[in-house]
Amino acid sequence: MEFLELPKRTAGNRTYGLTSIIDLGTPLEELKSILHDYAPLIDIAKLGFGSAYVTPNLKKKVDLYKQHDIHPYFGGTLFEKCYYQNKIPEYLASLRDFGIDYIEVSNGTLNIPLQERLDLISRIKKDFRVIAEVGSKDSSQEMAVSQWKDEMKQLLEAGCQYVITEGRDSGTAGIYEKNGNIKCNLISELIQDIDSKKIIFEAPTPKHQMYFIKEIGANVNLGNVKINDVLVLEAQRRGLRSETFYLEDSECKLPL
């Protein structure tokens, strides 16, 4: 159907308006069925936590995503585990073996100094598209708005393709309060100073997703989207849900 006036969506090999899903163990045959219909709605697929290390048929799953023009990568927790055990060279070699060109550099569990992350990014950005996560998975740790901004700016200047705002798959840390409420003032401050097209906001539930769509527009980058929610999310982006019914053209809402 092509007769309604809806917010315009980026398409194809898009650089913003991204939907980044979290794969928490979707069986291979089930994934084939899902991607048969919904692959065009997905841009990036994160194999959550450190689950990639114990995923059956991992190579087949990675290849399946790539066949559908979706960029797969391994969750930041696996990166941090490798960092903790001094196995980063082995980790990078493994990514190359799997033909994965995205890597997440995070410090959600460990407190990896910013300068160490920046140095690593400068070394690997020629071989990988780097996504860096900002914020802690520990809901008791609070970062000042100025620290959020400073880290995100430095990570982008170091060569990251995108920065991710930590939210966990539960939406209870980082940019969220323990009860799941969004830190609205923080988001408002971030998008004033940083190009929102370079930020992937972790938004694991439709409620969280609708907030960012209404605040930033249909082409906001959203991460930690559950694979079974991609159609719901696309309908929300296009103003086809009550909460986003009056959504305007997204291009005019994204901060320039």
From TrEMBL:
Membrane-crossing residue ranges in chain numbering: none
Pfam families per record: ComA
InterPro entries (alphabetical): Aldolase_TIM, ComA_synth, ComA_synth_sf
Superkingdom classification of source: Bacteria
Gene3D superfamilies xrefs: Aldolase class I (3.20.20.70)
Family classification: Belongs to the phosphosulfolactate synthase family.
UniProt xrefs under PANTHER family: PROTEIN HEAT-STRESS-ASSOCIATED 32, PTHR48413
Name this polypeptide is given: Phosphosulfolactate synthase
